[in-house]
Write a structure and sequence with these properties.
- Helices cover about 20% and strands about 25% of the residues.
- The chain has helices spanning about 90-95, 135-145, 160-170, 185-190, 195-205, 225-240, 260-270; strands at about 1-5, 5-10, 15, 25, 35-40, 45, 50, 55-60, 75-80, 100-105, 120-125, 150-155, 175-180, 210-215, 245-250, 280, 290, 300-305, 305-310.
- The strands form five sheets. The protein has an eight-stranded mixed β-sheet, with helices on one face. A three-stranded antiparallel β-sheet has the order 1-6-5, with no helix packed on it. Strands 2-3-4 form a three-stranded antiparallel β-sheet, with no helix packed on it.
- About 45% of the residues are buried.
- Among the domains are: about 1-45, no CATH class; about 50-230, TIM Barrel.
- By secondary structure, the protein is an alpha/beta fold.
């Protein structure tokens, strides 16, 4: 347990957490909505500091990050808790409850990077890393001090206030942000969040690190032509080269809608490609996940599941010279 950052003390031993836009008012002995930050004696503490529920070495493409260090591996860690309550959560067993976890001292994590061949760094993922804020910040800072060339990656819902985000970003190399919908009403109903803070996170992150965005398409929820176009236009307004991953939904946790039809994914990707240069379909094995030059159409990266074949040596098309938004 570690004293938390970004909160204020109130009368009656209550505290107001200011880490994320939930801005929880937390009474003595109670936890915030994330289940990871709790009021002890009128002070706010991170109860999941260093507690790791999941650890694995994953292909970077699994995050998914297709334009950041393709074909590499990354040591991936998660804890417990989340500041959203998604009805379709894929990792509800660790996001919606406290679970058994092994403690890793921050100093012990950076050396682990060198234990695995082809490993480029550390990813904070599986549950929501931003509610693990103090630990992620401490580990990321240590990684940059001890191994400046190693990567720090976040796979996140992006639901964080701007001040803590801006304090963390200098230590982050890449992010995949989950944009669940382009409707504030859907955000509230589907996961108990709000749209605008996530859009602000996307805009801020795009200025500081490599950014990719994922939207899980749920039938009759966020898969309309209008909404797909709004998402694509928003991202293109920042940078038309931001990779967008449109993933297939399957029934899970508390949501029992049928799986997203293949036709919906193909239609949505076609709409998004009218505005963005790199659009991928996820969770559909037969989908084309190759990367193509947006100018001449040359295949730059071939992907089959997590097997990757790279046809470029620098971030430009070897045929026409078009600059490509990719970090090799």
């Amino acid at each position: 347990m570690r004293r938390a950052k970004f909160w204020e003390q109130l009368q009656g031993n209550r505290v107001r957490c200011r880490l994320c836009p939930q801005n929880c008012l937390i009474g003595e002995g109670k936890s915030g909505s994330c289940r990871a930050r709790a009021n002890h004696g009128g002070d706010l503490y991170s109860e999941n500091y260093g507690k790791t529920s999941s650890i694995a070495v994953d292909p970077i493409e699994k995050k998914p990050l297709y334009h950041y260090k393709p074909s590499k591996l990354i040591l991936s860690l998660g804890t417990f808790g989340c500041n959203l309550r998604c009805l379709h959560c894929q990792n509800y067993s660790i996001s919606q409850q406290k679970v058994a976890a092994r403690y890793f001292d921050p100093e012990s994590v950076p050396p682990l990077i060198n234990n695995f061949e082809n490993n480029i760094g550390i990813a904070f993922t599986y549950n929501e890393p931003l509610i693990w804020y103090e630990y992620v910040h401490d580990v990321a800072k240590l990684v940059k001090e001890k191994q400046p060339d190693a990567s720090v990656v976040l796979v996140t819902n992006g639901f964080i206030n701007q001040e803590p985000l801006e304090e963390l970003l200098p230590f982050v190399d890449a992010m995949n942000i989950d944009l669940k919908s382009f409707s504030d009403e859907t955000y509230k109903k589907l996961c108990g969040g709000r749209l605008e803070p996530v859009l602000e996170t996307i805009k801020t992150a795009s200025k500081h690190c490599h950014l990719e965005v994922t939207t899980l398409l749920i039938p009759d929820t966020n898969d309309s032509e209008e909404e797909i176009r709004e998402i694509a236009r928003f991202l293109a307004g920042i940078n038309e080269n931001i990779p967008l991953h449109l993933s297939r939904y399957y029934p899970h946790f508390l949501l029992n809608k049928p799986a997203t039809p293949k036709e919906t994914l193909l239609r949505a990707s076609g709409i998004a490609r009218e505005h963005l240069n790199h659009v991928y379909i996820g969770n559909l094995p037969e989908a084309d996940t190759n990367t193509y030059c947006p100018n001449c159409g040359k295949v730059l990266i071939e992907r089959k599941y997590y097997h990757t074949k790279i046809h470029l040596k620098e971030p430009s098309c070897p045929r026409c010279g078009e600059a490509i938004n990719i970090i090799l």
